[in-house]
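=== RUN LOG ===
request id: a7f3
mode: sequence -> structure
chains: 1
length: 68
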Amino acid sequence: MVQAGVGLVVNVHLGGQYRGQQIPADKKSYLVTIGYRSDQRTLTNEEIEEAQARVVASCETELGASLR
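=== RESULT ===
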């Protein structure tokens, strides 16, 4: 996952796990916070959105995850 945002991801924090009625019994929901930063310049919204899309795609491919 972090490889997908290489160069911009500075931290990843797992905030919690949820299982309940809104989640299928064989699934779990996780709250993940990802921090992005560049040492060279201020990142644009487009750069952050692109990095986020790569991270989400990587999680879907490598982990079978889906974004809620």
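=== NOTES ===
The beta strands are 9-18, 29-36.
The CA atoms of residues 30 and 59 lie 12 Å apart.
=== END ===
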